[in-house]
Structure formats: structure tokens, C-alpha cells
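Sample entry follows:

:::
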Amino acid sequence: MSHTLLHDESIPAALDGLWIKLRSVSWHHGRGMELQLIRSYVLLIARSGEGRLTVDLDEHRLRPDTVYIARPGQTIGVTAVQEGLDFYVFPFDARREGEPDEPFPFQGEIPVYPETQTGVLSELLYHCSRSDDALERFRGQSAFQELLYWTMKRIRLLPDSDSKTALERTRAYIESHYHESLTIEQLARMAEISPKYYVDLFKKTYGKSAIDYVTEARVNGAKQLMMHSDARLRDIAHQVGYSDEFYFSRKFKQAVGMSPTAYMKKRRRKIVAYTSPILGQLLALKMIPYAAPLHPKWTAYYHKMYRTDIPVHLSAYRFNEDWEANIEALRQAHPDMIISHSDNLHPDEREQLEKIAPVYCIPLQEHNWREQLQLTAQLLEASQEADCWLDGYERKAAAARELLHRELKDETVLAISVFKQNYYVCPVRGMRDVLYGDLQLHPARGFDPAHCNRRITQEQLAEFDADRILVNVCQEPESLAHWQSLQSSPLWLDLKAVRRHRVYTIRSDPWREYSASAIERMLNDAVRLLYGDRPD
């Protein structure tokens, strides 16, 4: 758990000569915040409840006795872990003459004494930022300076014996010493608290027991060792902390759902999923690749679910701008085969890939996701698995279709995306295939699903007059600011779907990916959002 703390006397000096400008304010009440790449500093302040803050690859606690300051270029997101989570997000710029690299002296998780005044100032800032009065928005800048003052004033300098800090030390110790014999009593002594309190505090803080955390660390370590072709089960068990290989096998099967032997057999072939849709197709075939694009924002679901199963994490940045780094990572991994989409490869990229391993490209534009799944399966001699998966999906889609038709009847549904200050109707193929193909929902009046990704105006959005609207907002500052502004505009407030509280926000993951796994998650998401009229 990283944080930057200064002694009381050094705080004024750290802030001296610092230029700060607030960019915007957003308030999140009762829900989290989707992962987003930030272009400025961001201050997060919780007023009540507790959330799990993800910053790049790390997780932190967000609650009233901590604030968090993230840096430009990081990826941040918040998940509520308690009801009543209420927090503010303040993007801001900071600059100090002569120190352009790291002008803001505080970063990371900072313990504070909860202060009523910070809540009052946060609420004031939120209302100032949404005001039509330029003078009130100007007032918000001085209020933000005041908020920073109160936050820095209430910094809590922690002694080494603080239980939360000590608890984090034991978690880090588990991750680096899981192969040793670890007991609750030993870990509690390290945290300088009683074993009973340690057990309760660990579960409350990390959402799982300390024993389960040790087991998870050992299983993840075993998965890495299983990547070696000459690995023996008994040796692997001993290396991750189990003296009895049969007991290890039972624990592994409980955690993974298959025996270590079956897992090793499945992982023997080093397959590279070079794009996230290929990863989605392989997972539908029950195949976990050796390398794939993984990132907490760009491929959030895959990163969360499979990051410990996939040894080589390729760059998942959109438009594949980091392909040279991927080439180098694969050159060291020595894969057996690489599967990609021909549409995504740069001119020199395929040539470099072919020097590493045979490259197979699945055409993206010429085939729908079902055909792409079957082509991928044929390549891997897994056509039976593809047929089985598709049969299961068709049954699930039929049940979902019947459920939603009974709920929605003749109501119309429209999917749009917000990118910067533009609106696009049904921007990607997956949305069309799920909503108007598999679920056979009624399109909005005047909208032809055959013509997707069409830019529209607010006036055209009103003309569609949809009963329900699914909205995907690009998680970058300009789009988020425009979305916030749009929601208070008279034209938006007059939309039928808005008046009836039938607007649903949908995430880019899975709704902008085109693969079997993503399509199935879209189907589940559509049912969750639309059935029973429960907006997200």
C-alpha cells in the first residue's frame, strides 16, 4: 500500500509556489466508477461507506479516513464494497516552475482524520462546477484550494504499529513467502494484534480469509511453475508450500475446477491470443492462452479473471500502438502459434511475428462472431467444443428473448455511445447482433439496425423517441464532462426514456468487444438491465 506522507512542518514547504487548477467535479452516490485512464491528477474523497479503489494493477481502500491522489497516466476505478458509498472525484492540474516532472508533492493513499468541513466543501464544489454562473464556477477554484488545505491539515501520521499498515505488511509477506509454512498466529504476531482480531480484520479488509489468501497465492504460484514442460507435480507441490502432493491436488482442484494434471495438459501448447477478441473466442472453447492482451482498463474482465492463468501479458492498449513491445515479449516467450485478426496488424508487424512462430489470422470484417468462433475452433481442432458452446448460447438467448419480450412487449430500445461531444447510434456490431438479432428487440422509430455507428445530433436522438436507451460513455475526461453536462440539458431531460427512468449505462467491456465470450456477457448484461426495469 503506497502513500506519500510528509511531516507537519514540511507540508507548507511542499505546497509553496504550487499552481493548481480544478478541472471538474463528479459525485458518485451508491455506486462505483468505471475504470478510466486519467490525463490529470485526481483527488478522491469518500464521505461515507467503503469502496475498493483500483489504481493500475493495485487495489486500495477508499473510505472517510483515507483520501487518494492519482497521477496523470494512471488507470483508476472504484467498486463499492459497502452500501452507502458516497465519494467525490476531483481532476486537477498542478504545476511548479522549474519542476515539471512531479510538481504535486502528495500521491497515493493518504490516511486522514475525517473532517466535516471537507464534506461541506466537496458538496459546495460539486454545485459550483454545475452552475451556469461563471462567477460561481470561479468560486469553485478557491473552494478547491480550501478543500486541499483542510485535507492536508487533517493528514494522519501513522505509527509503525498501526494495525492497518501492519496488516498490509503481512499481506505482502504472504505474497513473497507463500511457499513457507504460515500460520495465523505467526501473521498476527507480525501485525502486533490478536489472532482473532487479525482474522476478522483481514477478511473485512481484503474480502477473503487469510488462509484463503495463502491458498490463492500458492495456486497462482503453481500455475506459473506448470508452464515448464518438465515440471513434476510433486516438485511443484513442494515449491509452493505443500509437503503432500495429494493434498495440494485437492486444494488446486477446489480453486481451479480441474486437477493439476488436467490443467497442465491443457496448457501444454503455447497459444498466443494476439487480440482481445481472439482471447474471447479461446475462452469460449475452454482454452486459456499462454499470452494475451491484459490490462485493468482495456480488458478489465479478462484481467480480473485470468491474469494469474496467463503468464505473458501483452499490451492491451487500443489501436495496438504498442506492438513493438508485444513483439519483444513474444520473442522471449517462444510460443507455438499466434492467432490474430488480419485487420489489426501493422505493415511490418506480421513479418516480425512470423519470425517468432506461425501466425494464423481470422478475418474480422468478412465473418460474424459465430463464424469467427468456428474458424478459430477448426484451426485448433476444437470444432466439437465450438458446436457445444453455440448450442448452449442459443438456448440461453432463446430464454432471454422470451423473458424480455414478456417484460418489454412493444417498447423500443436504442443503444448510443458518447465520445467527446459526439453521439453515435449502435456504434459496434456486437450491440446490433445481441439487441436486434439474438434478443430481437424493437429498434427505435426511424432507426435501421443495418446502419450502425452513425453519428447523430441531440435533435435526432429526440426524434427516435426510444422507450429505453442504453448509453456507453467513453471513459476519458472530455466525454465524461460532456455526459455530465448532457444529463442536465432540457432536451435530454425531455426524452421519454429519461422521464420514465429507463436509461441504462453500459460499459465498454464487454459491449465494444466482438467475440463469443463478450457476446454472452452482453446478453447477460442486457437481461440484468432491462428485465424488471432496474437501471444500473
About this structure: The radius of gyration is 26 Å. The CA atoms of residues 173 and 187 lie 9 Å apart.
